[in-house]
């Protein structure tokens, strides 16, 4: 059963590595020439894609109007703060019981250094950033099936896995097993490199030593003055490390999107959406539920109603339309586009995802376990515990990300009440941090299939589906062009929304100028 | 769609393979939208409905409406031909994700039979696992 454990964690990483590892195509700020006076664009959705389109088109001289379903800007760029109320589909309402200033990001939470598109807008709008710690060597890797269910420090598993593998390779090299593949000269270099990489001893063994403890930690740390002699720790046996499956969790920081440096906005990811919304001001009309989109040879008209109260139908018209409504929702809105775009919209399922935020009375992970930021990985359905990467050493309260999971466990969580999702996250987390039950105060759980305005967390493209539908989804259809993370090759990332939006408006602008 | 799912399955199993290479690994989990998961553990129509389907279709099967909607399954005439709900569960449709890879044939049959005989639906004919298999 250990494989399931290892498999789950590794598959998460593999997934992020596979689908999410495309480089951004952002090539610096976009420069659009002035369009014919009065040219108008209707933008549907005031998420990141819609608001980037609005800022750039407005700056170029277009007349811009945005319709947004929610009563706030940002879309999935969103933070839930203490005091907020969130009602999911089915009417299940949660009042976020965190203290003022405490929050979680139910959607995106990371800004990798190479996502220069979203970072450009963050800087343009003066949103303050702070570091986001992906890998914390002192956090845990955990499996209910390994080491009696006791969490292991990341650094120990990583040092021991690398050390043992280095020793095996060194022995193979010494025994001539690699002679076919490695030249005599390279062999000497390889031996030195393995010693360096794996913290091996002079005889190329990985064993209890100062060198190994400099990676995995000491039994007794070196200190000052008398009684300061360090005592090295005992590495775990190779076979143990292998069968634990925990090696599957030590590659997290190697993925392109997880490599340092990563940033987060101070005070929550939602700060970006708020700043964009403020920048656009009255151009955004909130609480508008689009129910019909029609185009003809003169322009595009969206029909909408009040998303809270329904009421009478109203319309908004423009020469062109940038539609950023998620495909899961757009597939249900009548829109006269051709079969290729329609099929593409209809053939894009949305991922299940779950995030649970848990407020505790004190920051026991810091005070008792010296874990400052970063993540613990577990084979339990909550997958991840994320430690807050702000207010370190604060004597006050703290909010953990108590679950972040996709796929099967996220579907199951969506079928539960928010209270039960929180209860589950507490149960799983307490296997790793026994302080949980004693210190817990308040929680909030967002299961993305119940989010009223997305019906899922992000477009779930497969390579096969992309081959058939992706170009048709992105291509302009008459006067309508789609944008958003779903119309990008960086799905689920805000950079996908930004680069998709810039690409869409560039093509729209070209069409305008050639008309 | 069948073809697409097959390719997806192959792709995700290929990705999962290195992670599952240790000897303790069970059969690779089936395709999931996200690459994480395995079969849903619930057995029997009611348990599956409550454990999975009600996430979107809601505990009373009346569906829900936001910017988009999840259809009600109560007194739903689309359920008359059993092949239709089987196809939607297995292959997905618009906002409904393809859940075939998370379910055995028997689980799909059980949950379709449950919905077709509850929530005001009174269809007498039963779906068999073999019928589901043909849809994959």
Structure report:
The complex is a heterodimer of chains A (515) and B (136). Chain A has three domains: 32-70 and 272-348 and 460-514, 3-Layer(bba) Sandwich (FAD/NAD(P)-binding domain); 80-138 and 259-268 and 351-450, Polyamine Oxidase, Chain A, domain 2, CATH 3.90.660.10; 154-244, de novo design (two linked rop proteins), CATH 1.20.1440.240. Chain A is built from 16 helices and 24 strands. Chain A has helices spanning 2-19, 48-60, 116-124, 154-174, 184-198, 210-216, 238-244, 270-280, 327-330, 339-346, 364-367, 407-414, 418-430, 436-439, 463-474, 494-514, and strands at 40-44, 63-67, 80-81, 85-87, 93-95, 103-104, 111-112, 129-132, 140-142, 152-153, 218-220, 231-232, 262-265, 284-285, 288-295, 300-306, 310-318, 320-323, 353-360, 375-378, 384-386, 398-406, 440-447, 480-482. In chain A, strands 14-2-1-18-24 form a five-stranded parallel β-sheet, covered by helices on one side. In chain A, strands 10-9-20-21 form a four-stranded mixed β-sheet. The longest helix of chain A has 21 residues, at 154-174. Chain A is globular, with a radius of gyration of 26 Å. The N and C termini of chain A lie far apart (63 Å). In chain A, 54% of the residues are buried. The model of chain A is unreliable at 1-21 (pLDDT under 50). Chain B is mainly alpha-helical and 136 residues long. Chain B has two domains: 1-38, no CATH class; 39-135, Cytochrome c-like domain (Cytochrome Bc1 Complex, Chain D, domain 2), CATH 1.10.760. Chain B contains five helices and two strands; from the N terminus they run ααββααα. Chain B is globular and about 35 Å long. At the A-B interface, helix 1, helix 12 and helix 15 of A face helix 1, helix 2, strand 1 and strand 2 of B.
